[in-house]
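Subject: Sanity check before I submit

Could someone independently write out the structure tokens for this chain? I want to compare against mine line by line before I put it in a report. The sequence has 199 residues.
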Amino acid sequence: MRKALLGLISVIAIVCSLCAQEPREETEKTIEYPSPDGRFAFLFTRPPEGRKTLDVVEKDSGKILHRIVESDESFRDRLNAEVIWTPDSKRFAVTYMLNRRGSGISIYSRTGDTFRELKLPNLPSVELPANSGDGKITNVDSTSAVRWEKDGSLVVEIETTKSRAEDVITATRTIVLGFDQRDRVKLLKSTQKVKTEKD
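---
Independent answer below. Compare away.
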């Protein structure tokens, strides 16, 4: 009888221990940024631990077609991304942020169900005023895809911020990228604006 009672107490203790444990976090998966033709979209996979990923998928089946980007473990697995499609769903531009120092872009072209990353030309460097003085560059060439134009070109902005003792200098380059029939990317136009704000 005593042995049976001890066994029952042990079972109750195990059950209570399991009940007290916090539920395990599940991997978050979301489908976002569908293509205009409705065939494709982007799958964000965000596990509670480990690398976060962004994949382009078939919208209906969920089949993964291409890995676009994954987070960097050295920056606490941070991954934010925004996607803009061309109206014909044949190209898209991804603006992604993997760390706290700025964002970058990738441009892809589609043939059938195959996606190919396009090589970008050398983008213009920042030109800060000669009297910009001492300070710390806090935002290094943060690059964002802004919009697709009707002629198929892509408007991109590159921002560099320099913090000084009393103010902040921000240089924004607005560039226009064009595409030839072979999907080669070329720089069509580049302008820069500089503003200074009191810190």
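---
OP: Matches mine. For the report I'm noting this point. The mean pLDDT is 83.
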